[in-house]
Task: structure prediction
Amino acid sequence: MPFSNSHNTLKLRFPAEDEFPDLSSHNNHMAKVLTPELYAELRAKSTPSGFTLDDVIQTGVDNPGHPYIMTVGCVAGDEESYDVFKELFDPIIEDRHGGYKPGDEHKTDLNPDNLQGGDDLDPNYVLSSRVRTGRHSAGRRPDCAPPPRHNDNKTFLVWINEEDHLRVISMQKGGNMKEVFTRFCNGLTQIETLFKSKNYEFMWNPHLGYILTCPSNLGTGLRAGVHIKLPHLGKHEKFPEVLKRLRLQKRGTGGVDTAAVGGVFDVSNADRLGFSEVELVQMVVDGVKLLVEMEQRLEQGQAIDDLIPAQK
Ligand code: ADP
Ligand code: MG
Result:
């Protein structure tokens, strides 16, 4: 059944300039890319399942920005959205994913043996470790709602139809990211094998990697993160720059829309596309070790300048 909320036929009776949303107070990738001209060019198009430009951008019109993260401000309603609206999505993908170009190819590495170290992040600072990704069943549109499926001790979880068809999560208390990533890879491989045995496939192509609803999650869809206590570094003026140079991102511990409380942050990889799963987890492992070292220096009242990584 096509999407029913887009009313495209009705809207096209009105001039594009009247329908173009007011994005003057917006700070997201979509608002940076979408011009009145581009809106006029794309607004009559729709994907085979009926997803329109207005459907793509609605979230970014409703949500102007975020205190910590440059949000994307648009979503794909199906696999074809990335193609039908490529004039909008391609520059957003390039901007969000460090210059990733329309001709670039993505790489996958889900072999946990390739991760160096990662089993010893200091549990005095690292409260918990988590790796998640999303997957879509090819040829189907995302729907919403049914509840999460949990293992009993909640170290391996699959959410169904939250933001993506599947969200696969591995997590546990403390700093053994290697164990978390190993369970993640094994579980994900088992799910994919089960899918294939029933003649389903995950949405994937060589350019976009695994295709997810939000363009920020293309490629690996992987977010490896820790809840980490950084009461000193978290207040340091260089903290945002340090995270940026380590290609890491911070959130509050209650999820993407929350602020950090009591110096505890959710720190994770900022990239998803153009790096393999192993490379991204490695960035988190190495980066978190450095953040702990900086925090320890600041506890002693010492400077951290010599630890700050060089700008790349
Ligand atoms: P994502 O989109 O990666 O699932 P969100 O920021 O939406 O992440 O958070 C989803 C939930 O996962 C939140 O309830 C958050 O508290 C929890 N969470 C995220 N990272 C961790 C972590 N390292 N340890 C424990 N819980 C976490
Ligand atoms: Mg989320």
Remarks:
- The chain has a mean pLDDT of 91.
- The first strand starts at residue 126 and ends at 135.
